[in-house]
Amino acid sequence: MLDNLADKLQNILNGLRGKGKLSEKDVDVAMREVRLALLEADVNYKVVKDFVKAVKARCIGEEVMESLTPGQMVVKVVNEELSALMGEKEVKLNLAPTPPTIILLCGLQGAGKTTHAGKLALFLKKMNKQPLMVACDIYRPAAIKQLEVVAGQVGVPVFSMGDKISPVEIAKAGVQEAKRTNRDVVIIDTAGRLHIDEQLMGELIGIKEAVVPDDILLVVDAMTGQDAVNVAETFNENLDITGVILTKLDGDARGGAALSIRSVTSKPIKFIGVGEKLENLETFYPDRMASRILGMGDVLTLIERAQTAIDEKNAKELEEKIRSQSYTLNDYLQQIDQMRNMGPIDELLSMVPGINPKALKGVSIDEKDIKRVEAIIQSMTMKERERPELIDGSRKKRIALGSGVTTSDVNKLLKQFKDTKKMMKKFTDMEKNVKKRGKFNMPFFK
After folding, report:
1. What tens digit of pLDDT does each residue of 427-443 get?
2. Among 7-21, 336-350, 402-416, where is mean pLDDT lowest?
3. Which has the higher per-residue pLDDT, 73 or 45?
4. CB-count exposure of residue 371 (10 Å: 0-12, 13-18, 19+)
5. Which candidate, 27, 38, 32, 29, places its Cα nearest to that of 71?
6. Are strands 281-283 and 269-273 parallel, antiparallel or unpaired?
7. What is the pTM of this model?
8. Which of 44, 176, 219, 354 qualifies as a cystine partner to 260, CB 3.0-4.6 A?
9. Are 44 and 260 in contact (CB under 8 A)?
10. Cβ contacts of 271 within 8 Å, gap of 6 or more
């Protein structure tokens, strides 16, 4: 996510960090490089111009120049201005005081409206809401069927009236159906076009006037760069949108749309799509995104992902097992599965403050490796999983044969498990020492 821009900005700012004193010339040189990095990331030209001007004004002021650590202060200024550029704080959905809340999704064809209708429905279900999806795309072949498939995957009903009734009438009837069945959120999936035209806008305006949505969310593809910003501007002029869902941000090496949309339209990015799975929809936090771009980590998002992926009861049971040294290969397998559910390992590590993103290039956990580990452990007896020390040469051969791997692969897994168990014991010992003495004592380094 925004890898190229992040690399460039971090390099520029690292060049300032080490300086004991900054001159106006140092700031000028750095800002020229920042301007180029942002333009290469396809950030809107006017947005770049205003951003660089604001940062420079603050950097040549007393706040930075008279600081004991001017380089660090520049980083702080850039972080704050980046966050402000994207909206400073997250903007939540406009939930109606009297249900149902009506959410109208709009956008060009291919932006991912139908998929993100499903993602949004799942997101709302996790908020203990009961969504109803309304199929108003009557033009694209199999659009209604696609919505029904997506809805089925997240366990949400779909209201449709086929492709012969006007989308405006379907939207009105859908809202009535939600009231009748006590559904507290209506998500209206509308038609898109390959380009913006009068028919598309007229239809959307008609739906808006008929059902008066609480939120009009524009779904735009981050991969289209500056075009995404232009699309957002046009939809906003016609519909007065309330927010944006920016899709495919995980695949956008440039990221200009994320940095431009708020400034150009004055409307917030409310959600970002960060993967293909229906769980891969996140609230957009401008301050957290700014920190990640500048290599300062994103601990809050990391914690939230962990809380979503890891069952609290299981986590407490695992903690007790680690303390009592009764951690088994079954627990090891469960942990690997939970980590996999949290997202790509390089993305998770990039959220940890202090980790150099460049060191993460190419770091990944191959799905084949995970399946190999699962196959090896599942080829063991329950007794072997509980007590790996029982696994001798003949057992290793049997396990390797049963899982379709070599005895070398079995040995490698057993060593990884042993090392993991040792590391966990060390952390447990550290915690005990902290509690006893009120300070760190690391006996394993003696």
Report:
1. 666 555 555 555 444 33
2. 336-350
3. 45
4. exposed
5. 27
6. antiparallel
7. 0.70
8. 44
9. yes
10. 116, 120, 123, 217, 243, 245, 246, 281, 282, 283, 284
